[in-house]
Design goal:
Length: 497
């Protein structure tokens, strides 16, 4: 599959979804980086033998032959010469690699930087079966070009394919022009507006409207972090005044109503501008119901839950051990039991469309910045490993991309019968904790092939810093179809002189 069809497939809701519970989790794998010769150490000709090849609406037992990074044949009993690496996939699923639409590698945030960089975070992703991710460029001093340059540098050590979204944190003519450059010259087709994080990344409605207008004119997708940042600020003051300084104060100070309000506001403003909207990390029923309502009325709104919101509940924030509780601090907060199940149901019925990880990790030392004040705990949780297992339930295996002749050879082999335990001691990431610690899983990614090379096999990663590729993404995706017509209809209805 080429990258534009991969991304299109992503937006067509492929990577859901999992009934994660204590008993049906996934993965275990000791770390270890080996191999120093390019994108993996195996030859560029691979035959995957006898697996169940899973496509969107069909599955069949077949061999898959890969040559020079492309799937060259999918059929039973392919014969090959001695120069071909043969991988036995009998009894296993052969599926496209995952795409994670939401990560934060080497992100400067809340006075520190996320501890997984573009090598360690991507290596963990590959071990979990993800072969592409999209990270968020944060502007430097509001400058998009400076932000892009900074992320180009950060990504020099990349070991897998990646793309960029970009945040917009201030507004003026320069930013407006730079958005154009990002879309037309740098391959960015989506911009995130933070409605929270007052005093740092937060923007106001004025900027949101300018940003939406500009996105629309460029065919770029507007994304929102939907929480009312002013109200969160007020909520934090109240909770601190009550003497609550621990991690539970994080959840108490920014309840679901503030996520619901901002989601509704963003949706209505996007409707007013008639531009598509993507709501990132939908964490609550309140936000999900706003999205459901808008979609029912025909508005183009995409809702992205994240693994933590689907699987966890807020109870851990009340753990008396700060080291444990603080690792669950993220925004919007992980919600009370019940929200996750409702988000899972919304995902299974298409009210929400795709799953990200929001992988944004800080270690225990960094989390301890907020030991006396929950407002200073860096926000973010892990998720990139075991990503695909988290996001893809074997019973939902049909809802993925395609293993087709001519497609990019980004392929995983998943063993539905293996079981394992998730632990920080084996999660490949640099952080020292894991919010899924101790959960058991079933269905392990045993082999990852990225760019036609085996990069994960026998619990070993075979990747080298610097061989990852930047994937440019074109504007005017399918969500923009019909926008012009609707605008013209609205204009004519005004009967302007
Ligand atoms: O807590 C979170 N989600 N951290 C990452 C930044 C963001 O808002 O996505
Ligand atoms: Zn966010
Ligand atoms: Zn995020």
């Amino acid at each position: 599959m080429d990258h534009s069809s991969q991304l299109f497939a992503l937006f067509l809701l492929l990577l859901p979804f999992t009934q994660l519970s204590e008993s049906n989790q996934y993965c275990e794998a000791p770390s270890g980086y080996v191999g120093e010769i390019g994108y993996g150490v195996s030859g560029s000709k691979i035959l995957i033998k006898g697996g169940t090849v899973v496509n969107a609406h069909h599955q069949e037992i077949a061999d898959v032959y890969v040559e020079d990074g492309i799937i060259a044949a999918v059929q039973p009993n392919i014969k090959v010469g001695d120069d071909v690496t043969v991988v036995d996939a009998t009894g296993k699923f052969v599926m496209p690699g995952g795409i994670d639409p939401h990560t934060h590698l080497a992100m400067e945030f809340m006075g520190t930087e996320t501890i997984d960089d573009f090598f360690s975070g991507q290596a963990a992703a590959l071990a979990g079966g993800t072969t592409m991710h999209i990270d968020f460029v944060i502007p430097v001093g509001g400058s998009l070009s400076a932000g892009f340059e900074a992320y180009e540098k950060k990504a020099k050590i990349a070991c897998m394919d990646y793309g960029f979204h970009m945040a917009i944190t201030k507004w003026d003519e320069v930013v407006s022009r730079e958005m154009e450059i990002m879309v037309k010259e740098k391959g960015i087709n989506s911009f995130k507006f933070f409605m929270a994080y007052k005093g740092s990344l937060m923007i106001n409605d004025d900027l949101l409207l300018e940003g939406f207008k500009k996105c629309k004119s460029l065919g770029a997708l507007a994304m929102v972090h939907a929480e009312n940042g002013d109200a969160v600020f007020e909520g934090q003051k109240r909770i601190i005044e009550l003497g609550i300084t621990g991690p539970e104060g994080h959840a108490l100070s920014r309840p679901p109503v503030l996520e619901g309000e901002a989601t509704a506001r963003a949706i209505r403003l996007a409707d007013f501008m008639n531009t598509p909207l993507y709501v990132v990390h939908v964490m609550s029923i309140d936000a999900m119901e706003e999205i459901a309502r808008a979609r029912k009325s025909g508005q183009k709104v995409v809702g992205e839950p994240v693994v933590s919101g689907l699987v966890l509940d807020e109870s851990a924030l009340w753990n008396p051990d700060f080291n444990i509780a603080s690792r669950y601090v993220m925004s919007p907060p992980i919600r009370a039991a019940g929200h996750g199940k409702a988000l899972q149901a919304a995902l299974s019925t298409g009210v929400l469309q795709l799953v990200g990880t929001d992988h944004c990790v800080f270690n225990s030392t960094q989390k301890a910045f907020g030991i006396n004040d929950f407002r200073k705990i860096p926000n973010g949780v892990n998720g990139v490993w075991p990503n695909i297992s988290h996001r893809l339930c074997p019973i939902d295996k049909h809802r993925v991309g395609a293993i087709l002749v001519g497609s990019d050879a980004d392929i995983i082999i998943l063993n539905p019968n293996s079981s394992f335990e998730i632990s920080a001691s084996s999660h490949h990431s640099r952080t020292d904790t894991n919010v899924y610690e101790g959960r058991r899983g079933k269905g392990k990614v045993e082999v990852t092939i990225a760019g036609g090379k085996i990069v994960w096999q026998n619990d070993e990663l075979k990747v080298t810093p610097g061989i990852g590729r930047y994937v440019e993404m074109p504007p005017f995706n399918y969500l923009f179809s019909g926008i012009d017509k609707a605008d013209a209809k609205h204009l004519s209805s005004l009967r302007a002189p």
